[in-house]
UniProtKB/TrEMBL annotation:
Enzyme class (EC, first level): ligase
Organism, scientific name: Mucilaginibacter ginsenosidivorans
Matching PROSITE patterns: AA_TRNA_LIGASE_II
UniProt protein name: Asparagine--tRNA ligase
Keywords: Aminoacyl-tRNA synthetase, ATP-binding, Cytoplasm, Ligase, Nucleotide-binding, Protein biosynthesis
Gene Ontology MF terms in the entry: asparagine-tRNA ligase activity; ATP binding; nucleic acid binding
Gene: asnS
NCBIfam families: asnS, PRK03932.1
EC number(s) given by UniProt: 6.1.1.22
Length: 478
């Protein structure tokens, strides 16, 4: 018997009175007798019963919160409340001590702010264990969803010369010796030289490269890190976030919306199926948090109910113009107006407007389409009205925008004209334009912000808590 069994499997075991090896980190050690041991396979700890009378006192002293141990013992039915089985220890070995005076995680509730400061250790708490297991399930489910439909997972580059969104929010990549950089005539550093003589940046989106793949493979998706140099300190933005970007040949906007809705519903249902315990735990955590709020601001639904509701209802689909008409007539409540009132057609919606539509007006996920062309990217297909494009944004309760996408402009002339109008250099994107020169076809795609999805499914309130190592202004240590 040399095989270690994970705690999740032990707790679900049909068999008892068998010898097992269990390894993990001590959460608590009570009365010199009961160890609560966790190995990250589940939020539930297994109880290890220590025969303290026959155990070396020096060893007992080393059984502290945070220590890593290996236990050989008998899996037996538990007499205690709260667990079906426990392990009667025969041998305990301390693999790694943890000085209780210095270990930052105590067996008590720590605030999320405190845990963000010790992000290297927060994996060891119940909340973060649950979040990262859910994150893993969602990520696997995304791959399964696309692979079941014959999509090809295409790896698009991280270092690129294009700023796909044309929004100028890209981080520069440089291999320059900054102590002795090349300079242009007026003495400024010549960043055009930064990538072996070329200007490059970290990708903001894999879409344009994804479109190249779709023009041959039909259906592709990317799933990788993307980077935005916007200096926004919000609960919804990261400087480095993961994005899923499918791109489909021969799809129009309706096909695109259908796919996005099916994807979201599938991955949420997979999380409910495979992480029921974790979601129940997170649901209770959220309920506790809600209790701190004034009655009228509390959510009417629990997390689990919210997720189920999302699965059971069609997303509301309407145009930007229809949404603006609704917003013009509305205010968040009788006393309060929007901070930025919606006055005219053509401006971008603020997150308060998006959340109003989703949370107060329709009370379900909403897909807005056909935005004014001037607030959207150059590659979106232009409508015949000359004013709007075949864009879609999916808005989720508590989140706001979770997906942004569109049908693409496949007509070369229209695309070039739009690039000229928006000052996008055509010569730099010659390779992209080639797809419109040779065998262009209608196609569409979207980008799903992975962390925003994880936020929704875990009910967490801050995007920094759903990615293992958050990158935001001034935060890159670990
Ligand atoms: O709306 P965005 O900027 O769209 C694109 O990048 C398109 N090229 C996607 C495509 O059509 N293939 O970003 C897509 C999604 C947003 O809806 C949001 O969920 C997420 O990415 N997102 C962010 N998530 C975290 N932090 C940020 N700074 C984000 N910026 C966008
Ligand atoms: Mg967007």
């Amino acid at each position: 018997m040399s095989q270690r069994t994970k705690i999740k499997a032990l707790l679900e075991s049909e068999q008892t009175n068998i010898e097992v090896i269990v390894k993990g980190w001590i959460r608590t050690f009570r009365n010199n007798q009961f160890i609560a041991l966790n190995d990250g396979s589940t939020n539930n700890n297994i109880q290890i019963v220590v025969d303290f009378e026959n155990t070396d006192p020096a060893l007992l002293k080393r059984l502290t919160t945070g220590a890593a141990i290996s236990v050989v013992g008998q899996l037996v039915a538990s007499l205690g409340k709260g667990q079906k089985v426990e392990v009667k220890a025969k041998e305990i070995e301390v693999l790694g001590d943890s000085d209780p005076e210095k270990y930052p995680l105590q067996p008590k509730k720590h605030s999320l702010e405190f845990l963000r400061e010790i992000a290297h250790l927060r994996f060891r708490t119940n909340t973060f264990g649950a979040i990262f297991r859910v994150r893993n399930t969602l990520s696997y489910a995304i791959h399964r969803f696309f692979n079941d439909r014959g999509f090809v997972y295409l790896h698009t580059p991280i270092i690129t010369a294009s700023d796909a969104e044309g929004a100028g929010e890209a981080f520069k990549v440089t291999n320059l010796d900054m102590a002795n950089p090349p300079r242009v005539e007026n003495g400024d550093v010549d960043y055009k030289q930064d990538f072996f003589g070329r200007a490059t940046n970290l990708t903001v989106s894999g879409q344009l490269e994804g479109e190249l793949g779709a023009m041959a493979l039909s259906d592709i998706y990317t799933f990788g890190p993307t980077f935005r140099a916007e200096n926004s300190n919000t609960t919804r933005h990261l400087a480095e976030f993961w994005m899923i970007e499918p791109e489909m040949a021969f799809y129009d906007l309706v096909d695109n919306m259908d796919l996005a809705e099916a994807l979201l519903k599938y991955v949420i249902s997979e999380a409910l199926k495979h992480n029921a315990d974790d979601i129940e735990f997170l649901s209770q955590r959220l309920a506790e948090e809600e209790k701190q709020k004034p009655q009228n601001e509390r959510s009417e639904m629990s997390l689990t109910e919210k997720l189920q509701f999302c699965l059971d209802n069609d997303f509301e689909r309407l145009t930007y113009t229809e949404a603006v008409d609704i917003l013009k007539e509305s205010a968040p409540n009788k006393k309060k107006k929007f901070q930025y009132p919606v006055e005219g057609w053509g401006t971008d919606l603020q997150s308060e407007h998006e959340r109003y539509l989703v949370e107060k007006h329709f009370k379900k996920p909403v897909i807005l389409t056909d935005y004014p062309k001037d607030i959207k990217a150059f590659y979106m297909r232009q409508n015949d009205d000359g004013k709007t494009v075949r864009a879609m944004d999916i808005l989720f309760p508590g989140i706001g925008e979770i997906v942004g996408g569109s049908q693409r402009e496949e007509r070369l002339e229209k695309l070039e004209q739009r690039m000229d109008e928006m000052g996008i250099p055509k010569e730099e994107l010659w390779w992209y334009l080639d797809t419109r020169r040779f065998g262009a076809c209608p196609h569409a795609g979207f980008g799903l912000g992975f962390e925003r999805l994880v936020l929704f499914v875990t009910g967490m309130g801050n995007i920094r808590d759903v990615i293992p190592f958050p990158r935001f202004p001034k935060n890159a240590e670990f």
